[in-house]
Amino acid sequence: MPFRSGFVSILGRPNAGKSTLLNALVGEKLAIISPKPQTTRNRIQGVVHVPKRKGKDGGQIVLIDTPGVHKPDSSLGRKMMVEVREALEGCDLVLVLIDVTRKLDPRDQFALDLVRQSKAKAFLILNKIDLVREKSKLLPLIEEYRKLYNFAELVPISALKRKGLDELLGEVLSSLPAGPAYFPEDEITDQPARFMAAEIIREQVLLNTSEELPYATTVIVDSFEAGRRLTRIAATIYCEREGQKGILVGKGGRMLKKIGSGARVQIEGMLGTKVFLELYVKAEPGWRDSRRFVEELDWRRQLEHRMLEQYPEDAPAADGNRKPADRRNE
Ligand SMILES: Nc1nc2c(ncn2[C@@H]2O[C@H](COP(=O)(O)OP(=O)(O)OP(=O)(O)O)[C@@H](O)[C@H]2O)c(=O)[nH]1
Ligand SMILES: [Mg+2]
To answer: CA-CA distance, 133 to 205, in Å (whole number)?
Structure first.
């Protein structure tokens, strides 16, 4: 039996349950979840190590959760769609996840166009089947999707109730090529703990606020000092207007306290240490439309900057024309 491995992107409209599926398959909370659309803003990698079982292949599935496919109207939205495209580049399989309680609409067409462009093999994953009593009611919807794309498999699941996930893993694994383990067994994500902490704080903002606020906020961890027993974290929640700042802080600081204590408990669970969390709120008008600000939110870029602060000799020349290949030869 070969060991199988490959990269599998999860694609679909906002709120379909992509992040819920990623977390359920990996068995850890790697992505934040909320009932509000456009929760995920960057691609999130999660590795599933599948042990070899009687008569069945073992392998490694590298899942990539993506932001919900939508027509962007801001720098943030455009960056989210770049993240989707990057996740599709060179992946072995795409899981097109749909919420079966919703009708097909132009956004699904848009998602399918992206799959067509990527030329990857695709499965249609029918999520939230726990909400449908009569499964036969799904047939017309399945037909509509089948007309739009030649899906290799069709798998009904409930990511929330963890139904159909073993079947899904089996189908995914057997469609992947024989290959090596790309990551060691104890590695389930490439996200730094610092960024996951920022996301956990943002999740508390999403869960505790409404209307425009969830979309107008972002979180940056300013400092992260990991100790054996205690981790000290300072983070800033950015919003767009002074009025929003008032809501985030709340009467007598109550809202900020609620967000902070909800996040602290979760970060403690993730890190296995006590956490001292300091939160600040700042208004940064129009940040969603600032390309520079949005780029700075990218943890891969933040990591690069911190590396360059530590090793300034690696910084590119001032003319900016040096390619990475030039550096490799030095
Ligand atoms: N009933 C039911 N709800 C689900 C299921 N899967 C996800 N949900 C709910 O759907 C909502 C959205 O879930 P997410 O996992 O955040 O969806 P997403 O596709 O990642 O959304 P974006 O990141 O905004 O694109 C949450 O309230 C989930 O609890 C499911 O199988 N059944
Ligand atoms: Mg998500």
So the answer is: 33
